[in-house]
């Protein structure tokens, strides 16, 4: 019973955080990468022309990976690093509180991404399914 509750909680958390990243990444594409690049240049992100599409891809693909529970250590770590960049270049100077443009929300996203990254994903994840298949197959 506890394992089922844990798997459902992990699934719901992965979906919620994954959707947030997916939508934010998608808006970087649909709003135009040129606009995202210009914003990145304005705030001093190095190599903004490379960083903008890279961040968009990390957020879209990472969001999908969290939702599916696939490649979680890689996806979660990349998303946490993405949020550390957001703190460094955008939100850090505004203090802690999100309502003042601070880093509260992005810090929570970074922490949640890391927790998901190393949670194992639960039974309702691609990673969990692959792990069960590897342990269920007898060797020799």
TrEMBL record:
A UniProt-annotated Pfam family: DoxX
Membrane topology: Multi-pass membrane protein
Sections of the chain in a coiled coil: none
InterPro entries reported for this sequence: DoxX, DoxX-like_oxidoreductase
Principal subcellular localisation of the protein: membrane
Domain of life of the organism encoding this protein: Bacteria
Transmembrane spans: 7-27, 47-68, 75-93, 105-126
UniProt keyword annotations, A-Z: Cell membrane, Membrane, Transmembrane, Transmembrane helix
GO CC annotations, alphabetized: plasma membrane
Compartments, as annotated in UniProt: Cell membrane
Similarity annotation: Belongs to the DoxX family.
PANTHER family in the record: INNER MEMBRANE PROTEIN YPHA-RELATED, OXIDOREDUCTASE CATD-RELATED
Full protein name: Membrane protein
Species per Swiss-Prot/TrEMBL record: Planobispora takensis
């Amino acid at each position: 019973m506890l394992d089922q509750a844990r798997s459902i909680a992990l699934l719901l958390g992965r979906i919620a955080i994954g959707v947030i990243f997916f939508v934010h990444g998608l808006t970087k594409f649909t709003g135009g990468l040129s606009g995202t690049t210009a914003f990145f240049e304005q705030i001093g992100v190095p190599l903004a022309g490379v960083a903008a599409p890279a961040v968009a891809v990390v957020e879209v693909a990472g969001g999908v990976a969290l939702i599916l529970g696939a490649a979680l250590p890689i996806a979660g770590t990349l998303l946490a690093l993405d949020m550390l960049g957001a703190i460094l270049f955008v939100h850090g100077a505004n203090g802690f509180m999100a309502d003042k443009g601070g880093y509260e929300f992005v810090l929570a996203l970074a922490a949640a991404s890391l927790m998901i990254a190393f949670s194992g994903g639960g039974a309702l994840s691609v990673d969990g399914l692959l792990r069960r298949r590897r342990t269920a197959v007898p060797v020799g």
